[in-house]
């Protein structure tokens, strides 16, 4: 029976083309506006590693001075000082651990047709690649010995490797970076987590910044400056070593534990570490030490701002207005078919059958509105992505939102058709037959 009603719905779309086009267009515009906004919000609020989110943990200490501090104040920064980061690395807690800083510099290609150019990247420890499951196209990460010795080794991204060497495997070759020769140990394949969570502070969650990676020990040995956020609440000592010994926070740190059940034990260890540091005269604010998993970390940093959420609510408000207009158009469309309903009721059709028929017709309208709304949403996302590189990352529709578009359109049309369909079912057959 549904197939028969569906055919009737398709046929009835042609009975009043102008009214049908107006309903479909009204519904499509509302769906496109809400879906395009919801798609961006969906991408921005996504979990880049849902299968191990609870096992990736970020520690935060408050090492600010007592001067100007009031109990209950939030920490000055969500990064760590060099001293704390190195102590946590040496502590050996968790299955893996990494500290990371941002870098900027220039490379001097071997090819004479390419002039030296600026690049940006990161300096983590070796565990970084396994922790975040970064795929390799060629080679592998550097060794633990390279981490300890601060060796001049480098991992390139696929894009930078192809720019420098084309499709050739560059592993084992040397690349001059910031005046030093680095040996290439590997090339990672395309890896673009959204949001870009691993080095989010100081760069932004939707920026493409990492073109290469070198050991943090190598960056420190060459006295490289941090490219990102650096927060100093007091003056550091003279020279680069004075900066390393200071309470300046500029390193982002990650733990990976074997299971989420290991989190309390890691928290206890961090509390013990903080207590030992207080005995040495540090961490005098005595604030609770925080430990965030990946999802909590993104929420803590407010990756999805209130403006984005407000935009989504406004878009759904617009969809509601479109639904109200659609209800009025459906009432007008169904009211002129009262004689048809009267004849069908007189011939024995029940109110339930009339309800199913008209509701199926509204679903057909919703399907047509969904198809048009999808095209309009894709066009809107395409225009949005042209505005900036950051918007190009988030303004893309995946299969989840593709399905949601059709479901939303059909559900909206059915919802809008409930009142007109109920009104159509109330037709009294005798009155309609007398009027003919």
From TrEMBL:
Transmembrane portions of the chain: 20-43, 310-334, 354-378, 399-422
Entry GO CC: plasma membrane
InterPro entries: ABC3_permease_C, MacB_PCD, Macrolide_Exporter_MacB
One Pfam family hit: MacB_PCD
Single Gene Ontology MF annotation: transmembrane transporter activity
Compartment(s) of residence: Cell membrane
Record key words, sorted: Cell membrane, Membrane, Transmembrane, Transmembrane helix
Membrane topology reported for the UniProt record: Multi-pass membrane protein
Top-level division of the source organism's lineage: Bacteria
ABC3 transporter permease C-terminal domain mapped to chain residues: 314-428
Domain MacB-like periplasmic core: 20-270
Principal place of residence: membrane
PANTHER family: ABC-TYPE MACROLIDE FAMILY EXPORT SYSTEM PERMEASE COMPONENT 2 (PTHR30572:SF18), MEMBRANE COMPONENT OF TRANSPORTER-RELATED (PTHR30572)
Name of the featured protein: FtsX-like permease family protein
Organism: Pseudoduganella umbonata
Taxonomic lineage of the native organism: Bacteria, Pseudomonadati, Pseudomonadota, Betaproteobacteria, Burkholderiales
């Amino acid at each position: 029976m549904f197939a028969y009603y569906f055919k009737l719905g398709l046929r009835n779309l042609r009975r009043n083309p102008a009214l049908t086009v107006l309903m479909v267009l009204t519904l499509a515009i509302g769906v496109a506006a809400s879906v395009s906004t919801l798609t961006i919000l969906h991408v921005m609020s996504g979990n880049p590693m849902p299968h191990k989110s609870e096992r990736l943990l970020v520690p935060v200490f408050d090492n600010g001075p007592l001067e100007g501090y009031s109990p209950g104040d939030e920490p000055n920064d969500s990064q760590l000082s060099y001293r704390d980061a190195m102590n946590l690395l040496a502590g050996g807690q968790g299955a893996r651990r990494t500290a990371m800083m941002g870098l900027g510099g220039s490379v001097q290609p071997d090819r004479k047709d390419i002039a030296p150019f600026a690049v940006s990247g990161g300096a983590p420890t070796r565990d970084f690649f396994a922790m975040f499951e970064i795929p390799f196209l060629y080679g592998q990460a550097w060794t633990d010995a390279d981490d300890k010795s601060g060796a001049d080794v480098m991992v390139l991204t696929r894009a930078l490797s192809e720019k420098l060497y084309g499709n050739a495997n560059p592993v084992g070759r040397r690349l001059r970076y910031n005046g030093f020769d680095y040996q290439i140990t590997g090339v990672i394949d395309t890896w673009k987590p959204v949001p870009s969570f691993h080095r989010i502070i100081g760069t932004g969650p939707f920026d493409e910044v990492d073109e290469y990676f070198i050991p943090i020990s190598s960056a420190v040995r060459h006295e490289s400056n941090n490219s990102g956020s650096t927060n100093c609440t007091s003056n550091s000592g003279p020279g680069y070593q004075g900066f390393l010994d200071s309470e300046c926070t500029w390193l982002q740190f990650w733990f990976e534990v074997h299971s989420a059940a290991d989190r309390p034990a890691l928290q206890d260890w961090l509390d013990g570490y903080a207590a030992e540091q207080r005995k040495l005269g540090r961490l005098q604010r005595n604030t609770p030490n925080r430990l965030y998993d990946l999802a909590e970390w993104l929420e803590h940093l407010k990756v999805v701002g209130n403006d984005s959420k407000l935009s989504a609510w406004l878009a759904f408000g617009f969809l509601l207005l479109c639904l109200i207009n659609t209800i009025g158009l459906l009432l007008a469309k169904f009211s002129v078919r009262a004689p048809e309903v009267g004849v069908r009721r007189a011939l024995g059709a029940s109110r339930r059958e009339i309800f199913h028929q008209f509701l199926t017709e509204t679903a057909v309208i919703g399907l047509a509105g969904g198809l048009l709304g999808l095209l309009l949403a894709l066009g809107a996302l395409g225009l949005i992505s042209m505005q900036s590189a950051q918007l190009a990352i988030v303004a893309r529709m995946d299969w989840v939102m593709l399905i949601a578009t059709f479901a939303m359109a059909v559900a909206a049309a059915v919802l809008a058709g409930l009142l007109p369909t109920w009104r159509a079912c109330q037709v009294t057959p005798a009155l309609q037959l007398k009027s003919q």
